[in-house]
Amino acid sequence: MATPLIKLDNISYQYEQTKALTDINLTIEEGDFLAIIGPNGSGKSTLLKIILGLLKPTKGDVLLFGKPVNQFKEKERIGYVSQKSNAFNTGFPATVEEVVRSGLVKKIGLFHRYPKNVQKEVRQALKSVGMENFANHNIGDLSGGQQQRVFIARALISNPKVLILDEPTVGVDSKNVRSFYLMLTHLNREHKITIVLVTHDVDAVSKSISHVACLNRTIHFHGFKNDMDTMSDEQLEAWYGHAVRKVEHRNEVQV
Amino acid sequence: MIESILRYEFLQNAFASGLIIGVIAPLLGVFIVVRRLSLIADALSHVTLAGIAGSLYISQSIGALALLNPLYLGIAASVTGSLFIERLRRLYKHYEELAIPIIMSAGLGFGAIFISLAEGFSSDLFSYLFGSVSAVSRQDLWIVVIIAVIVILFLCIFFKELFVLSFDEEYAKASGLPAKWIHVLFMVVTALVIAGSMRIVGILLVSSLMTLPVAAAMRISKSFKQAIFFSITFGELAVIIGLVSAFYLDLAPGGTIVVTSIIILLLTILSKKWTKKGVLSQ
Ligand SMILES: Nc1ncnc2c1ncn2[C@@H]1O[C@H](COP(=O)(O)OP(=O)(O)OP(=O)(O)O)[C@@H](O)[C@H]1O
Ligand SMILES: [Mg+2]
């Protein structure tokens, strides 16, 4: 079998006060579409930050494309959309185009300016999130959901092999959520982009995903999306902390 | 005016350094403002004061060093201060702004000690505090030129990276940029610009040349490119008008440059209001 794109080996993470993750083992193969679900505070964002090398695990190893995360230099192969899209400075004087093209910063490298044809790539990326008419708008003048879509375009522009998305559809309206998931499905199935998605909309994504990981400090279930349906309601409740509806889309899934 | 510039070397020095500073201070200032580091620039200028005062005291008490250019120690103090601020910001992670009063008072404290140790350089000191049209030497001009080359080089290498870092620090780190190093370099370059601009605008007003033109530019800019363009334009305008009026009215250029910047800022605020009204009435 090919080397997994992402491999977490016995990861634990401790913030100053809280133990956020304990003994996480997770393997993500090329082409997977993994949804990570879990209640608030279950460590989903922490887990993504560890994969990205933003946080250093207290224990355990992270391998990206077979290499330890701190030696992995081709970060442009990983696209990331963080949970708090409003972590950026509102009022920042920048256009949507300037923000989106900044997704190429690592690929282009030091010294070099953005190439002349970058505008075309920007339009392409904006088009895939339905924002092609906003290239010259000031980023601060957009609504939260529109900004979020711009950040998704920024993650897409470098043609990443893996997309890591932390609740990317928060604040995006339901019509655009649907088209966004269609777009992810397309990227995953046609362009073979591996996707790791943290979400609470289990229902909305269930048609698209291939795998599910249920997280609450530790992984309670990880496997094919179909196999999750064999979990009993009691088991689900046990890890989620409260009752959830089981996702029933068995007939529509084509894994 | 042109005639006097051609005639007097001191005016050439002042105008040439002024024109250079009018570009590099607001250019770096754009990043300082969007990263919310404006007050750090102020803290650093006070540290520069300590270096300058220390140097003036040393040249007064040690005969062999009488001709030492105070800018050197000023630059050294400013760069050291910038590195200390970084350390402190990391120590007080959740109260990053605490580094500013700490460094600022340290700078003023040392400055006050050196100033009182060496009595009687008040006219010199005045020119360092508020800038001077007549006190800029050829050597000062060369120092400014070297600093400008460093700034331009730094921005040529790191412009894209600085944009990402300023806009969204977490994303910069996730993209694998050496965010920490770029930031430290940025602080050092900022310290250099502050020390270099001080001869013209003066220690107490140096940070305003980095922030006021940017504040005005941000009122009317939609893109980052525009913000940079207008910041430099306003900075140059303030320096030229400020220096000319300082020369004719025999005023401290720090004062005239800053007041000009304030007027430009007010005009941009008003013009924005007027255009908005115009749009509404259409
Ligand atoms: N910067 C931090 N410092 C200290 N503790 C933190 C920090 N970030 C998160 N935590 C703690 O770690 C735990 C996991 O947080 P995390 O943000 O990973 O949860 P999450 O699953 O993403 O939650 P949500 O669904 O709300 O986004 C929480 O208990 C939280 O209190
Ligand atoms: Mg989260």
UniProtKB/TrEMBL annotation, chain A:
Highest taxon in the source lineage: Bacteria
Keyword Transport among record annotations: yes
Higher taxonomy: Bacteria, Bacillati, Bacillota, Bacilli, Bacillales
UniProtKB keywords: ATP-binding, Nucleotide-binding, Transport
SUPFAM superfamilies (alphabetical): P-loop containing nucleoside triphosphate hydrolases (SSF52540)
One Pfam family of this chain: ABC_tran
Gene3D superfamilies registered for this protein in UniProt: P-loop containing nucleotide triphosphate hydrolases
Family the UniProt entry places it in: Belongs to the ABC transporter superfamily.
GO molecular function: ATP binding; ATP hydrolysis activity
Official protein name in the record: Metal ABC transporter ATP-binding protein
Cited SMART domains: AAA
Annotated ranges, domain ABC transporter: 6-242
Protein's UniProt keywords contain Transmembrane helix: no
CDD domains named among the record's database cross-references: ABC_Metallic_Cations (cd03235)
From TrEMBL, chain B:
Pfam families: ABC-3
Bilayer-spanning residue ranges: 14-34, 39-58, 64-86, 98-121, 141-165, 227-248, 254-271
InterPro entries: ABC_BtuC-like, ABC_TroCD
Keyword Hydrolase part of the UniProt annotation: no
Cell compartments where the protein resides: Cell membrane; Membrane
GO CC term, one of those recorded: ATP-binding cassette (ABC) transporter complex
Keyword Cell inner membrane included in the entry's annotation: no
Topology in membrane: Multi-pass membrane protein
Keyword entries, A-Z: Membrane, Transmembrane, Transmembrane helix, Transport
Any one GO BP annotation for this protein: response to zinc ion
Protein family per UniProt: Belongs to the ABC-3 integral membrane protein family.
Name of this chain's protein: Metal ABC transporter permease
Naturally occurring in which organism (per UniProt): Psychrobacillus soli
